[in-house]
Design goal:
heterodimer, A: mainly alpha, 2 domains, two-stranded antiparallel sheet, 2% strand, B: 114 residues, Arc Repressor Mutant, subunit A, 3-stranded antiparallel β-sheet, 12% strand, PadR family transcriptional regulator (chain B), WH_DNA-bd_sf (chain B)
C-alpha cells in the first residue's frame, strides 16, 4: 500500500485508531474503518476532518453503529490497561532504578548499596531489566498484540511497531544508564 | 434546485432506507452512494454519516461488502444487497410510503378555527 494520506491526514487517522482502540472496537473492524476513510478522502479530495468530523466524534459514531456504548475519557484509558502490563512496567521500573543506582555507586567507587554489595544490586537489576526489554522487543517484532489492526485489502498490520520506535524505546534508557555511569565517575 | 439542507431528524429517519435503496441498484461504494443521494435531491451526505449507516446495515445482515483494488488508489469498498436486505427494503419502503401519505394527509387538511 503506497502513501495514501498526507501527514496531517495520517495524524487524523492515527488519532481515530487510538480512539477506536480505547472504545474496544475489534482490530479487524478498525482496519475496515481506516480503509474506508482512506478510500473516501482519495475519492472526494476532502480532509478527513471535513468528511468525518473529529476523530473522537467519529469513533463514537462507529462504536454506536456497532452497538458499543461510548465511554468517558477515564473509562477509555482504564479499558486499555491490563494488570499484567502495569505489573511489568512496575517491575521494569524498579529494576531500572536498582541498575542505575548500582552503576552510579560502582562508578563512584563505593561497594555497598542498601546494605548489599553494589555489584549484586546492579546485576539483579540488569537481569530483570534485560528480561523485561527482551519480552517487549520480541512481542513488538512478532506484532503480537492479540488483536492487530488488519488492513482488509492486504491483510497487513496497519499499526506496526517500526524499528525506529523500538530503537528509541530501548535506546533512550540505555543512554540514561551510560550517563549514570559517567555521572558516578565524575562524582569521585 | 439549490443545495438542499433537510432537517437532521428527517435525514436520520429515512437515510438508512434510502441507502438500502441505492445499494439495491447493484454493487456500489461510499462516494457513489453519496453522489446518488445528492442527485436524488437529499442534499450532501458526509462520509461521517454515511459509513456508520453502511456499517449498521452490514451488522444487521442487510448488505455485504468486499474490497476491490483501485488503479493506484486505496481501493473501493463495494456494498451489495443481501436477500434479507431485499426483503427489508420492500417492507420498509412500503411502510414509509403509508407513513408519508398519512403525514401529508394530515398536513394538507384545512385547519379548523377553534
Amino acid at each position: 500500500m503506497g502513501k495514501v494520506l498526507n501527514s496531517s491526514e495520517q495524524a487524523w487517522s492515527d488519532a481515530l485508531l487510538l480512539q477506536l482502540r480505547m472504545l474496544d472496537v475489534p482490530g479487524t473492524r478498525i482496519g475496515e474503518v481506516l480503509a474506508e476513510v482512506q478510500s473516501h478522502v482519495a475519492e472526494t479530495g476532502e480532509h478527513p476532518r471535513e468528511a468525518f468530523g473529529s476523530p473522537r466524534e467519529y469513533a463514537d459514531q462507529v462504536a454506536a453503529a456497532l452497538g458499543i456504548r461510548p465511554a468517558g475519557t477515564w473509562a477509555r484509558i482504564r479499558g486499555t490497561l491490563r494488570g499484567s502490563d502495569l505489573l511489568l512496567a512496575l517491575v521494569t521500573g524498579l529494576a531500572g532504578f536498582a541498575l542505575a543506582d548500582g552503576l552510579w555507586t560502582l562508578a563512584a567507587g563505593e561497594t555497598s548499596l542498601f546494605g548489599l554489595p553494589a555489584w549484586a544490586v546492579s546485576g539483579v537489576g540488569a537481569l530483570v531489566l534485560a528480561a523485561g526489554t527482551a519480552r517487549f522487543v520480541l512481542a513488538a517484532n512478532r506484532g503480537d498484540d492479540g488483536d492487530p489492526v488488519r488492513d482488509p485489502r492486504t491483510g497487513a498490520d496497519m499499526a506496526p511497531f517500526t524499528r525506529t520506535q523500538i530503537a528509541v524505546l530501548a535506546g533512550l534508557p540505555a543512554l540514561f544508564l551510560v550517563m549514570t555511569v559517567v555521572g558516578g565517575l565524575l562524582s569521585r | 434546485m439549490a443545495e438542499e439542507r433537510w432537517p437532521g431528524e428527517w435525514m436520520r429517519g429515512v437515510l438508512s432506507l434510502c441507502v438500502l435503496r441505492v445499494v439495491a441498484d447493484g454493487p456500489t461504494y461510499g462516494y457513489a452512494i453519496a453522489a446518488r443521494l445528492a442527485d436524488a435531491g437529499l442534499g450532501s451526505v458526509k462520509g461521517g454519516t454515511l459509513y456508520p449507516i453502511l456499517t449498521r446495515l452490514e451488522t444487521e445482515g442487510l448488505v455485504s461488502s468486499s474490497w476491490e483494488a483501485g488503479d493506484g488508489g486505496p481501493g473501493r469498498k463495494f456494498f451489495t444487497l443481501t436477500a434479507a436486505g431485499d426483503r427489508a427494503l420492500l417492507e420498509r419502503a412500503d411502510q414509509w410510503r403509508v407513513f408519508t401519505e398519512r403525514a401529508a394527509g394530515l398536513l394538507s387538511s384545512p385547519s379548523v378555527p377553534a
